Amino acid sequence: MIEIKSFTFNPFQENMYVLSDKTKECIIIDPGCYTPQEEAQLSQYIEVEGLKPVRLINTHCHIDHVVGNAYVSKSYGLELEAHQLETPVLESIEMQAKYYGFEIKTSPKIMHYIDEKTEITFGESTLKSLFTPGHCPGELSFYNEAQKFIIGGDVLFQLSIGRTDLPGGDHATLINSIKEQFFPLGDDYIVHPGHGPSTNIGFERANNPFLQ
After folding, report:
1. Class of domain 3-211
2. Disulfide engineering: 81 pairs with which of 109, 112, 135, 181, CB 3.0-4.6 Å?
3. Antiparallel, parallel or unpaired: β 190-192 and 199-200
């Protein structure tokens, strides 16, 4: 059984996730911890729960999802994993920071590439990868069949979708990612998004105004 712990961090109110199982191995997805207080909150959770971080993963590389990469990488000796197409997005992080008035620690480079064929393993658990571009050119989502959940980055939100007006975004591509990658999984899949509350495929299929 995978336990999903979420934290909502930084001025963008980004949801980062720590996934663990009974082995106490865990993976950290989209670390948005920005302030020393947020970094301490993450580390305290890991320490109190006795977890061993084994992977650092970005669904995509916009600043709000990677601002904690440096802290997590240094604290736990982890190398960054993401889709190869996110390399130029990550390389623009200083420009992104300047635009939003952020001061950030330089993120480590992507050392291990993930694509839609990659399985994310930790402890006794496995996530499968989906290639879900549109918000970002190399955005990935990760799902678990047994527990029927998706870690969805900025693809699908409750009654909304990821923005597509940033460099590399494309509205039609994002809609296609949702309908061709998320919808076939089934209405009962829970989506844990990069912002806002969790939702499920069935609710969004029926009610999301962007998907009608």
Report:
1. alpha beta
2. 112
3. antiparallel
For residue 113, the cross-strand partners are 82
Please say whether the beta carbons of 187 and 7 come within 8 A: no
Q: Round to whole Å and give the CA distance between 154 and 156.
A: 6
Cα(42)–Cα(16) distance, integer angstroms: 10
Domains of the chain: which residue ranges?
3-211
Read off the pLDDT of residues 88-141 as tens digits, 9 standing for 90 and up.
999 998 888 888 888 888 899 999 999 999 999 999 999 999 999 999 999 999
Joined tokens for residue 13: 């109110």
- CB neighbour list of residue 53: distance below 8 Å, 6 or more residues apart: 18, 25, 26, 27, 28, 46, 72, 76, 78
Task: Measure Cα distances from 65 to 62, 121, 145, 212 in Å.
Answer: 6, 21, 25, 28
Strands, DSSP E only, in the chain? 3-9, 14-20, 25-29, 52-57, 80-82, 110-113, 119-122, 125-131, 140-144, 149-151, 156-157, 160-161, 190-192, 199-200
The H-assigned helical ranges of 67-185 are 69-76, 87-91, 93-100, 171-177
